[in-house]
Amino acid sequence: MTASDEQRDRDLEHALRRLNARAWGMATGLLAGGILFFATNFLVLKGGPTPGAHLQLLRVFFPGYSVSFVGSLIGFVYAFVVGYATGRLIGAVYNGLVREE
Fold first, then answer.
1. Is the pTM of this model over 0.85?
2. CB burial class (10 A; 0-12, 13-18, 19+) of residue 65?
């Protein structure tokens, strides 16, 4: 094995250890938004005198959110943004910890 082959192998290994922070952001954003969207619509379909009394508390953090179909769309956007930021942060911290040898 030549020196250039060893360098290429080290570069490939380093590239494979790094995370794509944008992909992590999209994945966690879609997951968080999807969970809130489906949970809200499940409670809307379930009905009752006060559907989603605990989920209504999200209005404190997500202005405009309510346990309704329109509220589930608003909640999806808010949860996606929070999830995206969290995923990007996880990816950035992980990539910062991966060191070149």
1. no
2. buried
